[in-house]
Specification:
Number of domains: 1
Bound molecules: coproporphyrinogen I
Shape: globular
Order of helices and strands: HHHHHEHEEHHHEHHHEHEHEHEHEH
Low-confidence stretches: 1-10
Strand order of the largest sheet: 1-4-5-6-7-8-9
Helix content: 40-55%
Largest sheet: 7 strands, parallel
Radius of gyration: 19 Å
CATH class: Alpha Beta
Mean pLDDT: 96
Strand content: 5-15%
CATH architecture: Alpha-Beta Barrel
Length: 348
């Protein structure tokens, strides 16, 4: 098929246009962790099935992916899975309690070398099947975002074994065993490149890397360890031609460094105003964010004021995707989400 033919088949999407910094009729919005515990329909399903079974059963994972799109006029769907799912596919023993806990932390050269290469069709076929199912039944032809954890964020869980505020063993690992750290990061970078390539082949229309623990690192360590690994993954994905999104949590100090990455969209937390983020990233990046998830607990007029503040800071230049600055909290009222989505759509 000619390239032009392929292009005309793609439905007009405000989300995909904004990723490419094209002008849009309305400002696109989706919400990090939009499928999940704040939705009664998710809790209902989850009361019968554990999280792992949900992610490994394509019909159920597709259903959960679509739940928020049926309830709200969201501009994108995001695959229901977890950043640790592909590592489980590589044989890393872990449980969700509900946060991921790795049974045997990975800290030695021998353990790093023993990690098998990820072959998505063999190791995580259910993820690829979920993507195919979602694409067949997604409302309003909303684009589907595929995702993976960024290598350093995955390293945090692998080395520490469980989530923590400081991730001290992971940060110590970088300083005490820098060669092992670099090797582990590159193995993860290759695995996530293969994983996301397979997601795009199955039908994911944008790909997102979550650097949820970027804020643990100083600029020096970020530049030495996390950045080359994410660059490696992004370079492998670029030829796919789908928009690439890099979410950087607590990364205000890193934005100047991240500006050099070949990525279409940078997602940010709520700490820096988007005007500042855009100035630091430069004109060739779209931005995604960055309402504080806590704002959804405010009275309606305060929520509106906070959302308007984000829109003002983002400005009118093309290339803004509205989102929260981090995942939605489990006790959020779904009606507040409905109000937010409507408000953003009414204020292009
Ligand atoms: O009990 C349950 O229902 C499990 C809770 C849960 C859910 C709903 C976990 C365990 N993961 C997920 C789904 C999930 N995880 C999605 C799909 C939902 C959606 O976005 O609509 C996504 C994109 C993730 C990604 C993820 N998992 C990240 C990156 C995003 C972020 O919030 O920074 C991270 C850091 C994880 C690890 C993880 N998995 C689960 C939890 C509770 C956590 C966070 C643990 C921690 O704070 O360290």
């Amino acid at each position: 098929m000619s390239e032009r033919g392929a292009e005309t088949r793609v439905p007009a999407s405000a989300f995909l246009a904004a990723c490419r910094r094209q002008s849009v009729a309305h400002r696109p919005i989706w919400i990090m962790r939009q499928a999940g515990r704040y939705l009664p329909e998710y809790r209902e399903l989850r009361s019968k099935v554990d999280f792992e079974t949900l992610t490994r059963t394509p019909e159920l994972a597709a259903e959960v992916t679509l739940q928020p799109l049926r309830r709200f006029e969201l501009d994108a769907a995001i695959l229901f899975s977890d950043i640790m799912t592909p590592l489980q596919g590589m044989g890393v023993g872990l449980t969700f309690e509900p946060a991921p806990v790795v049974r045997v932390p990975v800290r030695t050269r021998a353990q790093i070398e023993a990690l098998p290469t990820l072959e998505p069709a063999r190791d995580v076929p259910f993820v690829l099947e979920t993507i195919r199912l979602v694409r067949r039944s997604v409302p309003r032809a909303a684009p589907l975002i595929g995702f993976a954890g960024a290598p350093f964020t995955l390293l945090c869980y692998l080395v520490c074994g469980r989530p923590s505020k400081e991730f001290a063993p992971a940060r110590t690992f970088l300083f005490a065993q820098p060669q092992e750290a670099e090797r582990l990061l590159m193995r993860l970078a290759d695995a996530m490149a293969a994983y996301l390539t397979a997601q795009a082949a199955a039908g994911a229309q944008a790909l997102m890397l979550f650097e949820s623990w970027a804020g643990l690192l100083g600029v020096r360590e970020y530049t030495r360890f996390a950045l080359p690994a994410v660059r490696h993954t992004l370079a492998a994905l670029k030829p796919l031609g789908v928009p690439l999104i890099y979410y950087l949590n607590q990364g205000s100090a890193l934005l100047r460094t991240v500006a050099g990455l070949e990525v279409d969209v940078v997602g940010v937390d709520w700490r820096s105003p988007l005007s500042e983020v855009r100035a630091l990233l430069g004109p060739d990046k779209a931005v995604q964010g960055n309402l504080d998830p806590a704002a959804l607990f405010a009275p309606p007029e305060e929520l509106t004021r906070a959302a308007a503040g984000v829109l003002t800071e983002a400005g009118n230049a093309p290339g803004h995707i509205f989102n929260l600055g981090h995942g939605i909290w489990p006790d959020t009222d779904p009606d507040a989400v409905a109000r937010l989505v409507d408000f953003v759509h009414e204020h292009p």
